[in-house]
């Protein structure tokens, strides 16, 4: 007797997928509504994750390439007094130290940097701007994928110490163009002031939009001379090989620290991996968490649609469910059948949503996505590029797919449990 | 520079000792500051939270307030500052243009010191530009002084209010506090080392404090002064700056 029951159960279980599939096709509009909701949410979540991943990756790259390097070196007192532009606290023997650092295992290069507020003078008009001393041959500011030369080109920059590259904003403000001359004056490291006339060699729109304000770039050695910094720089950016672990990076930091401790210049230097130079890295982690919760909220909203359509389906099929139960299908098989209906719908839909998302993300990754046109200027100060190139790791697609199916399954447990409670005799007496 | 000399220079007159009304005090002070020309050689030591800088400069000035300063020692060596009326013209050896400053820029620091362009250049007259009130007599550095308050007649004045403590015998302002339009004290000047040169009482050591900066002071020492000696007018032209 028990063996027969088991056999019947096994037989009932084996037909559940077929019944679930048939049920999905019976009310195609409802299935389409549930499926399209999941697909749409999966698509939107994929796109949001891709934009987030693209933006965070872009900001990380820009911070490392343009603001700190993988490791940033400063005079300790410079950081302590950063608010008042303490140019006199430069890095002694900048060039010699840079050369020694480049010999450390894992270091791929260095870049010297000076930043100073200045007044730009042209035809009796004065504008406040930022003078940035860069190593033309080493800086990554002008090689960013999103950087464009409005006037001049990359071969024009760095020809002579009295030449400058200016941003489009500065060009517009003072009507300056390639070949024009302008005079700047600024406070020097010695506390006095100095000025010089420079020739514009190029007008640029930089990929890192934080550098597109009123800014002027010139050779750092030239600027160091004008600012009475004795041929030294305020910062050295150290670039390390790609994918270096935090532990390896800490090793390079220790090597750099031992270099200057053994040198004749006894100025205490601050040597920090880029992740410790500000709060932006912590922000990246926070962004990840925030976006995960946004995705969950989207799926929860979608689950309300799943819940409603499944509940409606169960109520409409009470007589049918009662019949199945009277024919011997147990309540767990009923529960499983309804759950399977939703899982099949959610699985196919989430897969379709992820596939559509992957197609759009591929196009974005190839051609770029204009963040500023989409309101990206609101995050100024975070080193975001105007154009980002979104991408999404494979595990993220798997995560979106799994989250979609799981939340849909969770949403249908209440209607499925309702179906389990159907009394066959009572259900058979009802009209529908 | 002329301004400082104006503050520092006073005729030693008996009348000044007994001048009890404000007009007489200002007239006495102005009498000491009105001169045809002045030339001086000075050194300046500026001390701030970031360290100390030293420089020296020569200064020429004439009656209408035109002033030329030429920096001959220190990190700003070779630079020139020309005051013409309400404008300052800056010459930097590496710059092809002469830079013109006006308005509030005249309150900017000269050579990173606590002295502003306005403090060391420009018109010295008081009665035409300020209305004075006598606040009483006080002692400064052990010397009896008239305490006077000057309020600018014109809103374009760099300092809208000045407080001075004028030595009743030497007619030298031993202490001056300079205020902004909002009434905020901007700078405080103490004068000392008074010597009689060419018949004038000259304060040869001045200490200026920028009250908006913490731990900031500049000591200006006048090494050499010549008053009312001939000065070439060409010195005060913009063309001369670039030569």
How are the secondary structure elements laid out?
The complex is a heterodimer of chains A (432) and B (243).
Chain A: H1 2-26, H2 28-68, E1 71-75, H3 76-80, H4 94-102, E2 107-122, E3 125-134, E4 148-151, E5 163-167, H5 168-174, E6 181-187, E7 193-205, E8 215-219, H6 220-226, E9 235-240, H7 246-261, E10 269-273, H8 280-316, H9 318-326, H10 331-367, E11 369-370, E12 387-388, H11 394-411, H12 413-420, H13 424-429
Helix pairs in contact in A: 1-10, 2-8, 2-10, 2-11, 8-11, 8-12, 10-11, 10-12
Chain B: H1 2-8, H2 14-18, H3 22-33, E1 37-48, E2 51-62, E3 67-73, E4 80-84, E5 87-91, E6 99-101, H4 117-120, E7 130-140, E8 143-152, E9 161-167, E10 173-179, E11 185-197, E12 200-210, E13 217-227, H5 238-241
Antiparallel strand pairs in B: 1-2, 1-13, 2-3, 3-4, 4-5, 5-6, 7-8, 8-9, 9-10, 10-11, 11-12, 12-13
Helix pairs in contact in B: 1-3
In short:
The complex is a heterodimer of chains A (432) and B (243). Chain A is an alpha+beta fold and 432 residues long.
Q: What is the quaternary state of this protein? A: heterodimer
Low-confidence stretches of chain B: 6-19
Biggest pleated-sheet summary of chain B: 13 strands, antiparallel
Number of extended strands of chain B:
13
Overall geometry of chain B comes to globular
Quickly count the helices of chain B.
5
Structural class, judged by helices and strands of chain B? Answer: mainly beta
> What is the radius of gyration of chain A?
32 Å
> Please, what is the average pLDDT of chain A?
86
SSE topology string of chain A: HHEHHEEEEHEEEHEHEHHHEEHHH
What profile does the largest beta sheet of chain A have?
Answer: 6 strands, mixed, barrel
Compute the CA-based radius of gyration of chain B. 17 Å
Strand content of chain A: 15-25%
**Element order of chain B: H for helix, E for strand:** HHHEEEEEEHEEEEEEEH
What is the share of helical residues of chain A? 40-55%
Q: In whole angstroms, how far apart are the ends of chain A?
A: 34 Å
- Shape, principal axes of CA atoms of chain A: elongated
Largest interface: A-B, 23 and 22 residues
* Strand order in the sheet with the most strands of chain B: 6-5-4-3-2-1-13-12-11-10-9-8-7
């Amino acid at each position: 007797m028990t063996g027969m029951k088991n056999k019947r159960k096994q037989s009932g279980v084996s037909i559940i997928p077929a019944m679930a599939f048939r049920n999905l096709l019976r009310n195609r509009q409802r299935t389409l509504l549930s499926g399209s909701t999941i697909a749409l949410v999966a698509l939107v979540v994929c796109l949001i994750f891709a934009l987030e991943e693209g933006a965070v990756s872009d900001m990380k790259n820009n911070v490392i390439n343009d603001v700190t390097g993988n490791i940033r070196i400063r005079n300790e007192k410079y950081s302590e007094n950063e608010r008042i532009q303490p140019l006199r606290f430069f890095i002694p023997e900048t060039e010699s130290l840079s050369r020694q650092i480049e010999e450390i295992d894992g270091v791929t290069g260095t870049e010297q940097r000076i930043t100073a507020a200045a007044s730009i003078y042209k035809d009796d008009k004065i504008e406040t701007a930022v003078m940035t001393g860069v190593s033309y041959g080493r800086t990554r500011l002008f090689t960013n994928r999103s950087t464009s030369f409005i006037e001049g080109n990359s071969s024009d920059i760095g020809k002579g110490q009295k030449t400058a590259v200016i941003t489009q904003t500065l060009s517009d403000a003072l009507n300056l163009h390639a070949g024009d001359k302008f005079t700047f004056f600024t406070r020097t490291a010695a506390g006095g002031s100095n000025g010089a006339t420079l020739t514009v060699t190029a007008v640029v729109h930089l990929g890192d939009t934080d550098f597109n304000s009123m800014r002027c770039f010139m050779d750092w050695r030239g600027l160091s001379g004008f600012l009475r910094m004795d041929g030294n720089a305020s910062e050295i950016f150290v670039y390390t090989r790609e994918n270096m672990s935090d532990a390896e990076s800490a090793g390079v930091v220790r090597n750099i620290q031992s270099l200057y401790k053994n040198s004749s210049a006894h100025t205490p230097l601050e040597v920090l991996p880029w992740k410790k130079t500000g709060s932006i890295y912590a922000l990246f982690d926070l962004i990840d968490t925030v976006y995960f919760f946004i995705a969950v909220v989207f799926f929860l909203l979608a689950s309300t649609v799943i819940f409603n359509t499944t509940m409606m389906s169960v109520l409409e099929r009470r007589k049918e469910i009662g019949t199945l139960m009277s024919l011997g299908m147990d309540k767990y098989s009923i529960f499983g059948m309804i759950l399977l209906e939703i899982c099949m719908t959610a699985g196919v839909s989430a897969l379709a949503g992820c596939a559509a998302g992957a197609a759009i993300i591929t196009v974005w990754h190839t051609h770029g996505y204009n963040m500023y046109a989409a309101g990206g200027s609101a995050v100024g100060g975070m080193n975001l590029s105007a154009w980002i190139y979104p991408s999404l790791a494979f595990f993220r697609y798997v995560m979106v797919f799994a989250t979609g199916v799981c939340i849909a399954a969770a949403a249908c447990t209440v209607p499925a449990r309702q179906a389990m409670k159907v009394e066959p005799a009572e259900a058979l007496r009802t009209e529908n | 520079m002329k301004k400082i000399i104006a503050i520092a220079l006073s005729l030693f007159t008996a009348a000044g000792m007994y001048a009890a009304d404000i007009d007489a005090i200002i007239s006495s002070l102005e009498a000491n500051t009105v001169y045809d020309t002045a030339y001086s050689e000075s050194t300046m030591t500026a001390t701030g939270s970031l360290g100390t800088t030293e420089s020296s400069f020569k200064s020429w000035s004439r009656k209408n307030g035109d002033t030329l300063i030429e920096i001959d020692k220190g990190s700003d060596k070779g630079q020139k500052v020309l005051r013409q009326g309400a404008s300052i013209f800056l010459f930097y050896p590496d710059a092809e243009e002469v830079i013109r400053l006006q308005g509030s820029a005249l309150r900017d620091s000269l050579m990173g010191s606590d002295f502003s362009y306005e403090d060391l250049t420009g018109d010295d007259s008081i009665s035409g530009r300020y209305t004075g009130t006598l606040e009483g007599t006080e002692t400064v550095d052990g010397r009896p002084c008239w305490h006077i308050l000057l309020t600018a007649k014109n809103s374009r004045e760099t300092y809208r209010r000045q407080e001075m403590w004028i030595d009743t015998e030497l007619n030298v302002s031993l202490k001056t506090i300079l205020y902004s339009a909002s009434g905020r004290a901007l700078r405080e000047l103490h004068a000392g080392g008074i010597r009689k040169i060419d018949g004038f009482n000259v304060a040869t050591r001045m200490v200026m404090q920028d009250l908006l900066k913490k731990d900031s002071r500049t000591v200006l020492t006048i090494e050499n002064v010549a008053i009312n000696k001939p000065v070439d007018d060409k010195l005060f032209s913009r063309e001369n700056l670039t030569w």
